[in-house]
Each structure stands twice: as structure tokens, then as C-alpha cells.
Amino acid sequence: MPKRVKGPTDHVVVVGAGLAGLSAALRLAGAGRKVTVIERESVPGGRNGLLNKDGYAFDTGPSVLTMPSLINDAFNSVGEELKDWLELTPVAPLYRAFYADGSQIDIHANTEQMEAEIAKTVSPAEAAGYRRYVDFVTKLYKYEMNDFIDRNIDSPLNLLTPNLARLIALGGFRRLSPKVNQFMKDPRLQKVYSFQAMYAGVSPQQALAIYAVIAYMDSVNGVFFPKGGMHAVPRALAAAAQKHGVEFMYNTSAEKIETANGRAKAVITNTGQRIECDALVLNPDLPVAWRDLLGKTPLSVKRLRYSPSCVTLLVGSSKKYDHVAHHNIHFGESWDGVFDELIKKKTLMSDPSVLVTIPTKDDPSLAPAGKESYYVLFPTPNLDADIDWKKQAGPYRDHMIKTLEDRGYTGFSEGIETEVMTTPLDWQDQGMERGAPFASAHTFFQTGPFRPRNMAGGFENIVFTGSGTQPGVGVPMVLISGRLAAERIVGPVK
């Protein structure tokens, strides 16, 4: 049995109403605990934030939603159903990929549809390779999910299961890029089925093939969009939690954790309020929670290496483009070079590959009538790089706009009515260590049992949740991490 917190657990305080904190709160409430959630913002969501500006409703964090079954699972823990709280639309195509040679490929979750697309745009041989790749990632997901992702791991020995042998035999511990290349020879397909490693903070050349499970989650399982934008997800989870007795304290920051004899006793807020707790769940970025709330940084946390960061540009515009989809990936000529620059050299991309999401394609209500909303993401190095973002922000914003115009968004600058730019410095100000919204990188020794544990060493009743702990980064992973945190307190959650 996985380790659990010691002592009473009647009243649990959750610091942070991010997706992981909300996932934990729902499960704790479902298990009969009194739950109080402290959130510094005026709305739930954490990184999955909301910005209302000039009639536009912008999502400030994740823009790609996969694995809705995990959201439903959180609702089910209090006897609710997702369909009663959220309206999800399948995004079709999942992505539209644009390449430097002028070609484009639509990515579909339906395997037959995708095979036909590849046969038409690339070749029948590549379509057959894609079919074999789908079989590979489906098996990978099956072997990986229960034993390596969706469970609390106390020791590497916990991984010694029959599925470990199956993963090894499948090639899960080889490198991702060469593994993808075994199935698909066309560089365009290789890019679109391996770029997901970026979410894990490593290059496809360095990532383990087990990270193809992220490609399964979107490219096979499907991508969805909630009516009301991505922020509708935390709003719905918080509303369901509130209905089932969870108390939310918004506009309230946790300033300090009062401890005695290796136990958290209370949370002291920015208003001086003292909120007693039997157990504590911390949803802030793990290194920040250790340093700012617990007043120490363990050696294992000091040694962490962080993912690349990104700059986002949220744009409200009068310009619409017919050639684009909801999610668009614009690949540059360079591929290996992009990761080399971001991760090894820690410099800005000289030939960018970028993501452009247009949420108003599926929900026009997120912008004033007749207008369009754009979410533009350029990967950048994190704050370990020698880049002065106070000076660089303006020129880089202009570079982003010019790149978009060069990549087919003609006259983009003329259509801008409102915009908000977020740099690595801003991510750091929002509480993300090294300005890295994708948290510590999923290198081999920062993955699975080697990733920071969700039980705080030296404390009997403090549990971490979120992307900095197990199982890792991304909306599906943090929803799971909320359940794993709750299980540390109340045992297996049905």
C-alpha cells in the first residue's frame, strides 16, 4: 500500500485552486472530509487562468484539452457527471500543421480519417506506418497508465510489474524521435507526432519513447474545447466542489505554514488569519511551495532542471483568416536546431516553430461580435538563460508579429485591437520557478519515481499536487496528481 499521511484528516486545507487543487478538493469532499481551499486570485484555475479585456475573454494558460474522462472522474467522486457541468466540443481537425515548404497536413483523431489524409498528402506507405504507430502508442498508453502514471509511487521498486517488461519490449525506454522515425519516414509526420515532447520539457531527440503517450492523449484520443473557453473547466470543478461543501476563500494568499513536531498545524494568510488544518495539500509550484511556505529547499529540489519557457501573446483582432483551424502549428525549416537553441544553448529560436490557437473558431462568444481571439505561443528558454526580458519584451513582440505575417497571417498587426504579452519573467512573477510554466523537465531522473514525491519529506501531513510532482506536466497529469494527493490522505478513492 502506498504511504499515507499520519494522524487525523478531518479538516484538509488546500492551498491553490489550480486544476490539481480542485481535483484533490473534490475527492476529499467525496470522502467526507471538511475542505477549505485558499486561492490568491478572485477566480479558480491557477495556470488555467482567465483574463477579461476589452470585451474579449482570454484563456491565459493551457489551450489544448485532452482526456475529458479524467475531468469526469473528478466530478464522479462527488456523484456528479461532466455533461451536467460542461459542454465539450470535439476539435476537428485536432491541429492543422503548416510546414516551411508550403505544405499542410490536417491531424485527425479518427484513425481511418487520418490514414486517408496521410495517403492523400504524403503516401500510402506512410499511412500504413502511421497505422502501426497508432498501435504502438495505444499499447504504450495501456501499459503505462495504471502502473506508471495513475498511481502513487514510493520507490522505483514499485515499478517492477509485468507492464514494465512489456514497456521495455515495446521500446518505451528508447529515444522518442528515433522510435517515431521507425514508423514514419516523412519529416513532416515525424514532427507532428513528436513535438509533444516539448510539453514535457525535453527535445524529441532526448525524450524517452514513453512520452509518445502524450501524442496518444491528443492525436488518438482527441482534443476538445469547452464552451466558455478553457477556463470553463476550473469554474465547473469549483462550482461542483462548492455544491458538495468545499469552502473557497478567494483573494486570499497563504503566507506561511505553521508547523510543530513535523506537522502542519495551520495556514497563515496575507490578512493574518490563521486557518487550522489536520492535513494540508499544496498546489503552488513545488519548489516555490517548499521555499516560500515551508521555508526550506531540499537538495533534491535544488538540483532540478527546468523545462523551456514560452512567450504568449493574447490578441483580440478584427482580422479573420480562412486558411487556419482552431489549433495551428507552424513548423520552421529547423527542427533539431530549435531544441538545441532552447535547451542546450539557451537562446531564442532563430527559425521558430509556433502554436496559434483561435478559440473563437469554436466559441465566437469569447470575443465581441465579428471579432477573433488569438492565442500565440512561442517557446523560449527559461530564466536560466541570459536574456533581459525587461529590454527584450518589446522587440520580441515585434518579432512574433512579423513571424506570423511571414507565415500567412497577412496584415496581422493592422487587426490588433487589444493584446497581452506574457514573458518568462511574468511567469515567474505568477509563482512559476525559473519562469517555466511546464515545471521541471521530464528527464529520466525527473520522471516517475525520480520526480519530486508528493509527500513532503520531514512532515507527516503535507502533500504536494500539481505539475511539479508526480506524475507531471499537462492538464491530464495534474488532474491525476490531484487524485493521487487525495489518496495520500484518505486512501484509494473510488
| Proportion of residues in extended strands | 15-25%
Radius of gyration: 22 Å
Poorly predicted residue ranges = none
Number of strands: 20
What does this structure look like?
The radius of gyration is 22 Å and the shape is globular. It has 494 residues and is an alpha/beta fold. The chain has 16 helices and 20 strands. It has helices at 19-30, 68-76, 111-121, 124-149, 162-170, 176-183, 187-192, 212-220, 232-243, 286-293, 299-302, 336-345, 389-406, 412-415, 424-429, 475-490; strands at residues 11-15, 34-38, 50-53, 56-59, 65-66, 88-90, 95-98, 104-107, 223-226, 247-249, 254-260, 263-269, 274-276, 279-282, 309-317, 327-330, 354-357, 372-380, 416-422, 462-464. The mean pLDDT is 96. A seven-stranded mixed β-sheet has the order 8-7-16-17-18-15-19. Strands 10-2-1-14-20 form a five-stranded parallel β-sheet, with helices on one face. A three-stranded antiparallel β-sheet has the order 5-9-6. The longest helix is centred in the first third of the chain and has 26 residues, at 124-149. Helix 1 (19-30) packs parallel to helix 16 (475-490) and helix 4 runs antiparallel to helix 5 (162-170).
Highlighted features:
single chain; 494 residues; alpha/beta; seven-stranded mixed beta sheet; five-stranded parallel beta sheet; globular
